[in-house]
Amino acid sequence: MQAEILSVGTELLLGHTINADAAYVARELAGLGLDLLQVHTVGDNAGRLATAMAEALGRSEIVITTGGLGPTEDDLTKETVAQVLGLPLEVHTDSLNRLRAYFGDRPISANQYKQAMLPQGAVAFPNDVGTAPGCAVPAGEGHYVLLLPGPPAELLPMLHTYAVPFLQQLHQEVIQSCMVKTFGIGEGVAALQLASLTGNANPTVATYAGDMEMYVRVTAKASTASAALALTEPVIAQVRTLLGDVVYGVDVDGLEDVVVTTLLQRGETLATAESCTGGLLAKRITDRPGASEVFGYGFVTYANEAKKRLLGVPEHILDTHGAVSAATATAMARGAREQSGATYGMAITGIAGPGGGSVHKPVGLVYIALNDSAHTWLRVLQPQGRYPGRERTRRLATSHALDMLRRRLTGLDVEGAWAAH
Amino acid sequence: MQAEILSVGTELLLGHTINADAAYVARELAGLGLDLLQVHTVGDNAGRLATAMAEALGRSEIVITTGGLGPTEDDLTKETVAQVLGLPLEVHTDSLNRLRAYFGDRPISANQYKQAMLPQGAVAFPNDVGTAPGCAVPAGEGHYVLLLPGPPAELLPMLHTYAVPFLQQLHQEVIQSCMVKTFGIGEGVAALQLASLTGNANPTVATYAGDMEMYVRVTAKASTASAALALTEPVIAQVRTLLGDVVYGVDVDGLEDVVVTTLLQRGETLATAESCTGGLLAKRITDRPGASEVFGYGFVTYANEAKKRLLGVPEHILDTHGAVSAATATAMARGAREQSGATYGMAITGIAGPGGGSVHKPVGLVYIALNDSAHTWLRVLQPQGRYPGRERTRRLATSHALDMLRRRLTGLDVEGAWAAH
After folding, report:
1. Residue numbers in A near B4 (CB within 8 A)
2. How large is the ipTM?
3. What is the CA radius of gyration of chain A?
4. Could you give the angle at the alpha carbon of A411 between the alpha carbons of A408 and A414, nearest 5°?
């Protein structure tokens, strides 16, 4: 079955928004074994959208639109598709009820109301995080147009929960994918280590660069979900063997997920002390519901005075070694643990940039310390190549901190190549 | 002048790569005042590329390709374009010399050599960081095809150094855009309030839903940048008048940007105390380089014990009102300010969910307090309609906190409709 993506939005043609939606949808189509012929981006222009839609339906059975489902006058994807297909728009009761629930006591304006209208005969895809539903519209013998919202926060849940299962059922084959997640290995090296698997036909094995991480997707096709899952299992075991302990989990929701879950299992607790990451480590830990069982105290000690007063970092350490040093990181981690009574103290201090660097302490230099009552582990991140920016530097530092703790909790080498000297 | 982008690469259709190139090129075209009609993405397939190229040249004077200029067999953009235009490929001496310089003593293989071939009559764009040059190929009366490389590290310098000046010399109009940012108004309501402006031809006015915020873009065309900017100014003033004090800035980088900048100007400081947001508020403030001048202390008091010990929240307040209450939020804000010596203390306590809610304190209930030495302001966020999820609840709470502070710093009503009772 052939598919096309039609992305709608003037913001894409002005370059204000990068078309990540097309890649998200493309990945799912590849996972389903659908052949994506092309991606077409047009602005909020009914005439050009109608032309592109008619052309796409002439080539492909499945046309997926992203964007243009919202309440404003610019949002005209649904109206245009209905017109191209000669279908009237009808009130969709479930969507209207959802809209009413969303607005509570507030009135629903006419432009909001239009979101509850769907082309006749469409299968609705509920929007679990916003107001505009998506849908699949029958477009003649074996052809469908799928309408999906533009904002990724709305697109992704709808894609995974409703659109992919809809396409799967058209396609008659069940596909199961598992994502093996790693931290500490690049995609190039991983691809070489996995070379014996990446030619597989079923399950397929593909690497993806994630958010400073690397993921391996193992995808199997079979007639039932359990048969497909059973096919993935030995391959996942091979991936684990080939990549080693950089694998931190399968189908888990990030390093923070593994850390919080493992702390819960062990009945242990963590306190954090952050300088350059300014609360991001605590934020990532508390992203997980239930984190309160394992995390009670976080110290954002951005100022040296705060490091001394809240964490008891000795003045002479700050004077002798500076705030960005292994000694300060160690004292911060110990202070966080002792002040909170937690099992582990985790500290980050560094130079996130873009300012504040020097010859001896360049931008990107970060010290990370993990402390329990018996031992302190350290990693030092040295800037390598081009400065990746403040946000990536901070994110990477928190990922290293979480990786150190997950390694400590599972009995692996904690410091690796990153030990401080 | 109308333009189209034709992106080439199977990796784009598999979703392995997000098509950022199209956005980079689109931004430059908008800046030049060129009207980008559409973006088309095809795989490494000569037939489909040739069809798409012929169609694009039928609609637009300028067609810009990205990708497919490298040395491998998959790279067939240049060959296909030459064929569509009926132009032979010729050795381009400068490019061959550059290739020779790049390889030094190493031999140049046949597939590398093909990179020095350009369609007859093309204007070369040197590749300052790689081996494959780009070019502009004449494609009939006033029409040009521009070939640019796919890797952003090669595309961006070539685009800025050679392709944009080439297009500028063909075209004489400049575009300037400004983004008016708001917090506390929905896109639907804003669109109604701005109805008198959204029909404007120059400058144009358009609304965008941002990350729980709403943006208004004002875009003007003129013969010079300063003339275009001058056209936007009265329209931005009208937008401010129509929307009122929900406008928090123009071309600023989020509420945190305004808060940090205004604190710096006033020589004042902030300390934070967070429960349900777990460090996200501190993280957003420290996203801004230079935040250390205005932010020294952040307390992540996830446990009640931490609220008592670090912030001095009285036990009887926690016992009588509970951790999620106006009284606790007030005590946390005061404690953060007093413990740190900051000008302002800002506290957030609530139920981010999905668990932890009750009849009297449902999931989504959040108290936010801002305290200075003279006064405390409060907002209470009541869950409305459907639960938006943990991440959005936490993000929204921190945006409200930043909005309260920016209103305090600029002398506006701080609590508005959200005051706690």
Report:
1. none
2. 0.74
3. 25
4. 45
The CA-atom distances, in angstroms, between B381 and each of A69, A404, B8, B98, B245 are 28, 37, 48, 63, 19
Contact status, residue A59 vs residue A25, Cβ threshold 8 Å: no
Euclidean distance between CA atoms A230 and A202, whole angstroms:
12
CA distance A340 to B123: 67
Residue A232 host element (H or E): helix A225-243
Number of CB atoms found within 10 A of residue A316's CB: 9
A136 part of contact set with chain B, CB < 8 Å: no
Report the alpha-carbon distance of residue B363 to residue B383 in Å, rounded. Answer: 7
Q: What per-residue string of b and e applies to A235-271 under the rule 16 or more CB within 10 Å gives b?
A: bbebbbebbeebbbbbeeebbbbbbbbbbeeeeebbb
User: Between β-strands B376-381 and B366-371, what pairing exists: parallel, antiparallel or unpaired?
Assistant: antiparallel
- Edge to edge, the sheet with strand A204-209 lists A204-209, A214-222, A174-182, A247-250
CB spacing of B286 vs A303 below 8 angstroms: no
Q: Which helix (H) or strand (E) holds B153?
A: helix B152-158
Beta-bridge partner residues of A209: A214
A-interface mutation test, from B253, B300, B311, most A Cβ less than 10 A away: B300
Residue A393 forms contact with B (CB below 8 Å): no
Return the half-sphere exposure (C-beta side, CA atoms, 13 A cut-off) of residue A11: 23
Reading chain B (421 residues) residue by residue, the pLDDT tens digits are: 899 999 998 889 988 889 999 999 998 898 887 899 999 999 888 999 999 999 999 999 999 999 998 877 778 999 999 999 999 999 999 889 888 887 787 788 777 888 899 999 999 999 887 788 999 999 998 899 999 999 888 899 999 999 998 998 887 777 788 999 999 998 888 888 999 998 888 998 988 877 688 999 898 888 888 999 999 999 999 999 999 999 999 999 999 999 999 999 999 999 999 999 999 999 999 999 989 999 999 999 999 999 999 999 999 999 999 999 999 999 999 999 999 999 999 999 999 989 888 988 999 999 999 999 999 999 999 887 778 889 889 999 999 999 999 999 999 999 987 877 5
Chain B, nearest residue to A59 by Cα: B48
Residues A391, A396, A401, A405: is their CA dihedral positive or negative?
A: positive
Q: Left (φ > 0), alpha (ψ -120 to 50) or beta: where does B261 sit?
A: alpha
Q: How far is CA A198 from CA A216, A290, B306, in A?
A: 10, 38, 50
Rounded to whole angstroms, the Cα distance separating B271 from B254 reads 19
Residue of A nearest to B34 (CA): A14
A 149-208 → B contacts, CB under 8 A: 151, 153, 206, 208
Q: How far apart are CA B400 and CA B419, in angstroms?
A: 12
H or E element at residue B56 = helix B46-59
DSSP state of B19: B
Mutate to test the interface with A, among B219, B264, B297 (most CBs of A within 10 A): B297
